[in-house]
Structure formats: structure tokens, C-alpha cells
Amino acid sequence: MSYLAYGDRVGLRHLVMDDAAEIVALNKESLDLHGAWLPGSPIITLEEFESYLGRFDGGAHEGFVICRLDTGAIAGRINVNNIVRGTHQSGTVGYAAYASTTGRGYMTEGLRLLVAYAFEELGLHRLEANIQPANTASLNVAKRAGFQREGYSPNFQFIDGAWRDHERWAVTAEMV
Q1: How many CB atoms lie within 10 A of CB 79?
Q2: What's the pTM?
Q3: What is the enclosing helix (H) or strand (E) of 21?
Q4: Burial of 21 by CB count in 10 Å (0-12 exposed, 13-18 middle, 19+ buried)?
Q5: What's the sign of the alpha-carbon dihedral 110, 62, 81, 124?
Q6: Model confidence over 104-126: pLDDT tens digits?
Q7: Which of 32, 69, 72, 169 lies 20 to 30 Å from 151 when distance is taken between CA atoms?
Q8: CA 145, CA 147: separation in Å to the nearest integer?
């Protein structure tokens, strides 16, 4: 598959139906890693993947995967959600590494690629990331990708059975 952007070790491309088996397997292996951090039910069946992929029809959401250039294997995924056009030109970023790929810097490199792609190709001006304060790995990815902390949102999102506080992080086109 062709990449929309690529760095030294990873490439960015759109999520496609052919990714179903690999994503389902990665999500199954990462249930413990993702449980406390990701909203919604884990995508662990082909039917759930099809439903998830369907959310990217239309212009409000874009789904991407980060792939290792040496093997083509998926190292993580990134979504740009809630895209608002007009005078905002903004979106909210959500991302996840997998148990077999976490801690290697793939997501930092991939998020940097996504930021450039979102500003240059999608025409966005601002990206936000909402991250639980205890999710230090995710906070560090955002920091390394150039996001800056803007605030704190109590009871922001329902995750893992409770309303969770989040820190608000953002990056604008002028910042990169």
C-alpha cells in the first residue's frame, strides 16, 4: 500500500478493510494496555471493525494507521475526529499503540506525520488531543509531537466505566 507520508521508520496511510484481521489481532493482544484509556468497546471482531471503519465515511472523521516501513506491520492507529470546517478548521486526535509496539517511538513519529498531513493536506489549522492525566505514555507522545497543554477538563469522557478527567493539548499550524 502507498503511504500518505513517511518518516525514517514509519509510514502513515488510511485505514482500510484489508486491515481488519491485523487490527482485530492487535486489539486482542492489547486489551490490558487499552482498557483504562480508550473510549468504547474494543474492536475484537470483524463486524466491530466494519462498523468502526464505517465512521470514516463522510468528512467528520479520518482514520489512519502507522506502519513500520521495514515490515509493513501496523504499529498504531490515529484518528482525526470531530473535524469542524469553516472558521475553525480543527479536529480532535485520538491514537493508540499496541502491546507489541509500544515504547519504541513509532507513535511519536507517526503523530508528527499525521500533524503535518492534517495541516498540509486536510487543510486543518488546529488539532487537539484530550488525554487522561495518568496516561503518561500518551502525554509524552503528544509533547514530543509538538502539542502544548492548554487546560484541564473534569469528567470529560466516559471511559472504563466512569467519567474521566482529561488534559487538553493542542497544536496549530503556526507551531510546527
Answers
A1: 20
A2: 0.93
A3: helix 20-29
A4: exposed
A5: positive
A6: 999 999 999 999 999 999 999 99
A7: 32
A8: 6
